[in-house]
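Field log, afternoon session.

UNIT: design team B
ACTIVITY: writing a sequence onto a fixed backbone
BACKBONE:
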């Protein structure tokens, strides 16, 4: 199933997209009165999931409040994450190589331990909305298409063999980055966390829709030009490792967002670098989930 947070007639709603992707069915019409996606993740039951799976295949004209998808404004699925997003750095080998080139560092070809950092999000940005250029601060705005994993229930000391039972679903994010700020401060938090730096969407697809572990093609385009083209199968540290390792030392609350890293092809990886400019349109796509589209503000 594909869950969305959307706006229609200036009202925010939760919905499920029907099977052909053309209509949104509001959850409230099915007596599911979740106010936010966070509440849904924490509270939805298996019987409710089964009902929604059935309803998503029904005629839209039989569903009260159903709206054509093209008429709704899709917001970020989780507009206000309850905690900072947990991010994986340099989690694809080819991206590790291009990152080292950009920073003029030697690259030994080894990544024995995962690199974790956090990203502050005041409000996540939905598909179709603008990415602020922050021209007064940023001269090297960059894009990073990533698969995000959404934790479905509190996870503590989860063995690798049980990780799949803790995944609610997946979405697409663009880990927008200000490279000078990222490197100047010797820590990535500020350069990754400016307002508007977490486009997310267009939906959350529930985990049961895919074999586990999922293997998705992942791409990004800038103004229609293909920049990133890879597969999540090439991640250095997979979902099992990441969730098990993190949960050994901290509780991952339901609704936690884990961004699993970006493949090669980001702006800093080109020679010379090809950073985003005002007016550029960035598309981040993951097979089976959808495409996140955002324009950089003037």
């Amino acid at each position: 199933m594909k869950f969305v947070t959307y706006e229609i007639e200036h009202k925010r709603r939760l919905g499920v997209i029907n099977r052909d992707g053309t209509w949104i069915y509001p959850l409230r019409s099915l007596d599911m009165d979740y106010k936010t996606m966070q509440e849904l993740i924490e509270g939805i039951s298996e019987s409710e999931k089964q009902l929604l799976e059935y309803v998503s295949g029904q005629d839209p004209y039989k569903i009260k409040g159903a709206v054509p998808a093209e008429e709704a404004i899709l917001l970020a699925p989780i507009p206000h994450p309850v905690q900072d997003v947990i991010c994986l750095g340099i989690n694809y080998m080819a991206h590790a190589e291009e990152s080292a080139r950009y920073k003029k560092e030697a690259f030994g070809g080894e990544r024995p331990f995962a690199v974790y950092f956090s990203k502050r999000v005041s409000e996540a940005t939905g598909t179709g909305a603008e990415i602020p250029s922050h021209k007064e601060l940023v001269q090297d705005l960059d894009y990073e298409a990533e698969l995000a994993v959404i934790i479905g229930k509190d996870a503590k000391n989860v063995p690798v063999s049980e990780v799949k039972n803790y995944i609610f679903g997946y979405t697409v994010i663009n880990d927008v980055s200000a490279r000078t700020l990222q490197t100047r401060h010797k820590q990535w938090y500020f350069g990754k966390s400016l307002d508007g730096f977490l486009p997310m969407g267009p939906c959350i697809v529930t985990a049961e829709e895919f074999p586990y572990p999922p293997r998705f093609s992942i791409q990004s385009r800038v103004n229609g030009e293909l920049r990133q083209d890879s597969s999540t199968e090439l991640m250095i540290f997979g979902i099992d490792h990441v969730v098990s390792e993190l949960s050994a030392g901290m509780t991952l609350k339901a609704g936690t967002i884990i961004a699993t890293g970006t493949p090669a092809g980001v702006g800093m990886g080109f020679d010379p670098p090809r950073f985003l400019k005002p007016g550029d349109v960035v598309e981040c796509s993951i097979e089976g989930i959808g495409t996140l589209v955002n324009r950089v503000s003037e």
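LOG NOTE: The chain has two domains: 2-74, 85-296.
NEXT ACTIVITY: expression trials, pending approval
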